[in-house]
Amino acid sequence: MKTFPYHSGFVDYHFKIATKGKAWSPAFELDNSNYPKNNPSETSTKIINKTLVFKPGNLTDISNDQKEFLKWVEENDSPFVIDLRNNGGGENTLANELARKVYSKGEKIPGNINREKIGILSFTGFANYFFLEASTTEGDERDYYQESGMEILNVIKEAEEENIPLFEIEIEEEELEDMIGQRNSIYKSTIVLWINKFCASACETFVEKLSQLTNVIVVGENTMGALHFGNPTTFELPYSKIQITLPYRFETYDNDAPEGVGYSPDIHINKNATILELLETVKL
Q1: Does residue 13 surpass a pLDDT of 50?
Q2: Strand partners, 220
Q3: Per-residue pLDDT at 18
Q4: 267-268/216-220 β-pairing
Q5: In the chain, what is the greatest distance between 2 CA atoms, to the nearest angstrom?
Q6: Does residue 20 form part of some domain?
Q7: Rounded Cα gap, residues 191 and 177, in angstroms
């Protein structure tokens, strides 16, 4: 699979692959040997020692199970744990919606500023990234990456038809509209965020949005620190054939953390700790 767009044939090539309905074939093998095998892909909700323990699963479109969790938070004021370990991210939608339901009306939720370099080249690399992700996933997650890649390719095709130069770049800066809490009363119960070094990107948004609340306890080990650079683009260098990944979005946050270091927990616990040990540690 050629991943560097020298000409419009790049777009046609991907459309031909899509019509065959075959799996996307990456130009290189991804090394997932250091990634935990229990990476959560499905949402789960359990009651343990009278405490709700929620694993968000895929952070793409909000699923029905995730909607049920948000509804429970909206209607209750009870302790709960969000198990964010090993969640590699996706979209910020669930974290943002959760923040709105635990912050009181009028309370400002920590925000961020996005800066993007927009152009055919950056969009093409972004499409490459989605196709490579589709080649290593299955089911709904694979469909999501394929569909996202195809949507971006349609944008590229339209730009090419308008003869927009490949290397023409527009820099956009967007300060996101202030997010304000929606809860009628203060959420008094303890909220625990259980993190580890594989909590990355949109997973870290839960910590970014919620950790400044006085009733939130962050437990575990530092997150990955993959939060400032977004919209990864993937290219193949033309001579060495080395695959490179470059972002075209840079983000800054009100509640920030060092890149590559991540958010630190309030309480460090052993990475092999059980949920019962965690509940005992935070006195739930």
Answers
A1: no
A2: 195, 268
A3: 33
A4: parallel
A5: 63
A6: no
A7: 26
Band of pLDDT at residue 40, cut at 50, 70 and 90: low
Cβ–Cβ under 8 Å, residues 180 and 69: no
CB of 123 within 8 A of CB of 246?
no
Domain ranges, residue 98: 35-103+187-227+262-284
Which amino acid would we find at residue 250?
F
Helices (H), ranges, the chain: 9-20, 64-75, 93-102, 120-135, 139-161, 202-210, 275-281
What's the structural domain count of the chain? 1
State how far the alpha carbon of 126 is from the alpha carbons of 129, 143, 155, 232, 248, in Å: 5, 16, 12, 6, 9
d(CA 176, CA 249): 14
Confidence of residue 22 (pLDDT cuts 50, 70, 90): very low
Query: Is 29 among the domain residues?
Result: no
Tokens of 276: 């019962």
